[in-house]
Amino acid sequence: MTAAPGRVIVTPSELVLIADRLPGVSLPAFVSVDSTADDRAVALARLRARGLVSEAADLDDTDWGNVVDLSVLAPLAVLRGAGVVVQTEAWSVGVRRCTAASIRGAEYAAVTRTSTQAADDEVVLELAPIDRLWPALIDSLPPVDLSGHAEQPRPRSRVSTGIVEARALIDAIRDGDAGVIAAVASTAGGAPETAPMLRALARPLRAGFRLLGYVGTDPFVQRDWLATDSGWMHVQLTIDQPSGAGAIDARAIVETGKLMIDPTNPREIGADLLAIIATVVRSADVA
To answer: Are 217 and 247 in contact (CB under 8 A)?
Structure first.
């Protein structure tokens, strides 16, 4: 398998083997693997055969800084040194893709693990200009094929329910209890748009997409989108708690938590992602 410039494809075992031997480099938790001595020996042989490490690489060495190819070393260096990180998790039926992108200056480095039911897991390690980050995120949004489903009028207003009502809704979804779903819609305000939106949640989930942004270790943005047969929706949990009140506890979530659901579509998700990335880049400039 030949790697394109700035982009290397490896197995999780191969990347973990390298990262474990580069002081200061840590990989996202989603890349972790359990490996035996035999697994590591096989991974080393594959890395040598592809020229990603030199023949001098040895499993007993603890520092591979001089034996790892620059195509792997460069993005790992950015992953290690960047203060602003964007993580995404995208899933659809049979596929899960997790990405962590670290931004430094005019470039970003990303590690992406793709898991499918039909093939072994694959990891892509890449280093690219910052203006390619937004298109990469758009490309990772799972496609949802709605063909064959009757076109339903979609409400455009936000649905908001308390966390207790949301729990009742979850139970109703699991039990297929349309009556409870209607009751929750009524307690949520009774707007004509509420019941259709909540009923959409009762359908099987087709895909999901989550984005998290960090400056250092502090999260500063989170977005969650879910897709059913009726399309995409933005889902958000908010807590009404005074500033300075301390850590959010379970009681605060139960008493003041609100689940907000906004119907959306891929174009609107793309616009939201663009705004988020613009904020992320500004944060990276001052980090």
So the answer is: no
Greatest CA span in the chain, whole angstroms? Answer: 70
Helices (H) and strands (E) in the chain, counts: 9, 10
Pair of tokens at residue 121: 């897991």
pLDDT at residue 49, rounded to an integer: 96
- The H or E element spanning position 48 is helix 37-49
Task: Determine which helix (DSSP H) or strand (DSSP E) holds 87, and give its type and residue range.
Answer: strand 84-92
pLDDT: is 265 or 246 the higher one? Answer: 265
**Sign of the torsion angle spanned by Cα atoms 101, 102, 108, 109:** negative
User: Among residues 29, 154, 45, which one has the least CA distance to residue 99?
Assistant: 29
Closest CA to 68 of 33, 76, 113: 76
Report CA Rg, the chain.
Answer: 22
Q: Quick one: tokens of 141? A: 């949004």
H or E stretch covering 41: helix 37-49
**pTM, rounded to two decimals:** 0.81
